[in-house]
Amino acid sequence: MATDYYAVLGVARDASPEEIKRSYRRLARELHPDVNPDPETQDRFKLVTGAYEVLSDPEKRRMFDLGGDPLSASGGQPGFANFGFGDIMDAFFGGQSRGPRSRVRRGQDAMIRVRIDLADAVHGVSRDITVDTAVSCPTCHGAGTAGDSSPSTCPMCQGRGDIQQVQKSFLGQVMTSRPCPQCQGFGTVISHPCTECGADGRVRTRRTVTVNIPAGVDDGNRMQLTGEGEIGPGGGPAGDLYVEIVVAPHPIFRREGDNLHCSLTLPMTAAALGTSVELETFDGAETIEVSPGAQSGDVINLRGKGVPRLRGGGRGHLHVHLDVQTPTKLDARQEELLRELSRLRSEEHAEIASGHEEPAGFFTRVREAFNGR
Q1: In terms of DSSP bridges, do strands 188-189 and 172-179 run parallel, antiparallel, or are they unpaired?
Q2: What is the DSSP letter of 218?
Q3: Are residue 238 and residue 255 in the same domain, yes or no?
Q4: Is residue 101 assigned to a domain?
Q5: Which of 46, 79, 281, 307 is the most buried (most CB within 10 A)?
Q6: Cα(344)–Cα(362) distance, rounded to whole angstroms?
Q7: Per residue in 260-314, pLDDT tens?
């Protein structure tokens, strides 16, 4: 029967790499030959080491999960044949993966803010923006080398990318590694760097990017432009560009979600008699019909005249809030007419209304006067 490496380490089949590493550390301390030299313990230590060899390697673990045994090529007996002291030190000290690292890496993401008007947020707009990012070096095309030269093998690490050191521990002599200080872990050195980019493979420049801002965006929304960020070192793939939307305040309209709001100021006579007002909206002129006797705080709703919904169909509404103003300065004739109206309405003196019922407002009484009540 095939060995159950999960049972050997005492972990579940969905155990994380960190859980597998912790279990192996614990068992290795208990079973190492320097601590328990008897043959039975040594055999178990080899089994535990083989189990960790399989489960710590994603490819070998996948093979084992599919029913295979990655150690069967060595006779099915796990041990040190394919698993050296470096792997043990990786488990105990979190060692880095061996081998040189690539000079080609993904570039960083970038972000830029774009200021638009409220009208642009309602209808959408296309903008050309200038960004200052890293692009592939036009001279070496990302290679980082001058002319026809190419990177050469690092003389210090001989192309391995790391420097190994032998140290003593309770396990005996063990080997550790660190990135090569001469090539920074690349395994190669560029003796003749490109004079324009200094071996980085990229240069900074300004370029223009077209951004299509959809209708319905709001202040603070971010758009992701894939591959429009910084080119990576060594000519690596570009990161993404994030565009943050800043919507400028509007002198008339304010936005709340998908709805728009505005205030309409009316003189008291227009509010009492009723009137029509033409309001210029983002969709053109709209006629606002004010009914006789309108009061401050009344709201007239224009359905579908708000902001388009960014995710989903339809639009919000435009809410027009009425603000009725009482005149503060009257000439003699105006004052005479208002006093005559006051006498006709028997309103020469103010009355204190009962707290149990709402008193009729002034404009309601004016409307009733014009209606002959």
Answers
A1: unpaired
A2: -
A3: no
A4: no
A5: 307
A6: 14
A7: 999 999 999 999 899 999 999 999 999 999 999 999 999 999 999 999 998 878 9
On whether residue 280 sits in a domain, the answer given is yes
Number of other residues whose CB lies within 10 A of the CB of residue 305: 21
Judge if 72 and 116 occupy the same domain: no
Residue-level pLDDT at 1: 46
Tell me how far apart the 2 most distant CA atoms of the chain are, in Å: 120
pTM: 0.61
140 and 167 in a single domain? The answer is no
Question: Which residue, of 50, 66, 93, is where some domain finishes?
Answer: 93
What residues make up the domain containing 50? Answer: 5-93
| Alpha helices for 66-169 (secondary structure H) | 85-93, 118-123
Domain containing 275 — which CATH number? Answer: 2.60.260.20
Taking alpha carbons only, the member of 279, 251, 271 closest to residue 325 is 271
Closest residue by Cα to residue 91 from 135, 44, 49, 148: 49
Both 54 and 160 in one domain: the answer is no
Report the alpha-carbon distance of residue 280 to residue 155 in Å, rounded.
Answer: 75
Query: pLDDT tens across 278-291, in order?
Result: 999 999 999 999 99
Instruction: Report how far residue 255's alpha carbon sits from residue 219's, in angstroms, rounded to the nearest whole number.
Output: 10
Has residue 247 got a pLDDT over 90? yes
What would the pLDDT profile of 340-352 be if each residue is shown by its tens digit? 888 887 877 766 6
* Residue range 58-95, pLDDT digits in tens: 888 888 887 777 776 443 344 443 444 444 445 444 44
Is residue 367 domain-resident?
yes
- Count of domains for the chain: 4
Please, which pLDDT band fits residue 3 given cuts at 50, 70 and 90? confident
What residues contact 304, with CB distance under 8 A and at least 6 apart?
A: 314, 315, 317
Using a 10 angstrom Cβ sphere, with 0-12 exposed, 13-18 middle and 19 or more buried, the burial of residue 278 is exposed
